[in-house]
Write a structure and sequence with these properties.
By secondary structure, the chain is mainly beta. The protein has two domains: 75 residues, Pectate Lyase C-like; 89 residues, Pectate Lyase C-like (3 Solenoid), CATH 2.160.20. It contains one helix and 13 strands. The strands form two sheets. Strands 1, 2, 3, 4, 5, 6, 7, 9, 11 and 13 form a ten-stranded parallel beta sheet that branches. It is elongated, with a radius of gyration of 17 Å. The N and C termini lie far apart (63 Å). The relative contact order is 0.10.
Length: 190
């Protein structure tokens, strides 16, 4: 099946859970207040796209491409990002709710997460070298065998990171949140 090409298009209040997004390449497109929940985005390419106020609950992402895409004020529930096309994968998240999702073994080097609720998310074996988690709630999020070198957690909270199971050289933390590195030891810190 031949893919269609869409450039500089805006999609407002579209319900792609009922009317499937056309298989194609979307470049410099804006999706505002769109519902993608339970939709199938297999083999669709997004380049330099913005997703604002969108619902991405339980979306199928098999070989979906996100190249330099920005998600803002969006809901991203139950997503398997590791199924995406990894070539040139690059995203930014701002004020998003990312819940029950996985980035298993992905390269997210220098990825920015700003003011996000990142709950019950799996970053196992992910490269988060030099990533920025700015004012993020990381409750229940899993970091295991994860490269967190030079990652910035200084303004984030509710994380649980085991220094023995992760690479944390030059990782940045605030003094107030250091308990997130010591939880496994069941210490009382006053």
């Amino acid at each position: 099946m031949e893919k269609e090409f869409f450039e500089n298009k805006s999609f407002h209040k579209k319900d792609f859970s009922k009317n499937t997004l056309v298989l194609g390449e979307y470049e410099d497109c804006k999706f505002i207040d769109c519902n993608f929940s339970n939709s199938d985005l297999t083999d669709i390419n997004f380049v330099d796209c913005v997703f604002e106020l969108c619902d991405f609950s339980s979306v199928k992402l098999d070989q979906t491409s996100f190249n330099n895409c920005f998600f803002t004020d969006s809901k991203l529930f139950d997503l398997n990002f590791e199924n995406c096309n990894q070539f040139l994968f690059s995203v930014r998240f701002e004020k998003c709710r990312i819940v029950l999702s996985t980035f298993f073994k992905m390269n997210l080097e220098k990825t920015e997460f700003a003011e996000c609720e990142i709950n019950e998310v799996d970053f196992t074996e992910t490269n988060l070298n030099s990533a920025i988690f700015s004012k993020c709630n990381l409750e229940g999020t899993i970091f295991e065998n994860t490269n967190l070198e030079k990652t910035d957690f200084r303004s984030s909270f509710n994380f649980n990171i085991d220094p023995e199971l992760n690479r944390i050289k030059k990782t940045m933390f605030s003094q107030m949140e250091l308990i997130g590195l010591l939880r496994k030891f069941d210490l009382t810190i006053e």
